[in-house]
Amino acid sequence: MKIKELKEMSADELKHREAELVDQLFKLRFQKSLGQLESPMKIKNIRRDIARIKTLLNQTPKATE
């Protein structure tokens, strides 16, 4: 996922997307442990997407501050 696409999303959408990616990462790790993973590169890409989302969430000003 491109950073440009992520910047257009709201904070709630980003949190929802992050939760989806974490779940997907869990499933891929499970497949890897069973030896059924087709492409190990998927894990790397999902981890990077999660990091991008967390970075954007930390850059946005907090509403409570």
How are the SSEs ordered, and which strands pair?
Elements: H1 3-7, H2 11-34, H3 41-59
Helix pairs in contact: 2-3
Describe the structure.
With 65 residues, the chain is an all-alpha fold. The protein has one domain (11-59). 74% of the residues lie in helices and 0% in strands. The protein is built from three helices and no strands. The protein has helices spanning 3-7, 11-34, 41-59. The longest helix is centred in the middle third of the chain and has 24 residues, at 11-34. The protein is elongated. It starts with a helix and ends in a 6-residue tail after the last helix. The mean pLDDT is 90.
Rg, please? 14 Å
Which secondary-structure class do the elements indicate? Answer: mainly alpha
Mean pLDDT: 90
Fraction in beta strands = under 5%
Write a brief structural summary.
The protein is an all-alpha fold and 65 residues long. Helix content is 74%, strand content 0%. It has one domain.
Keywords:
65 residues; 0% strand
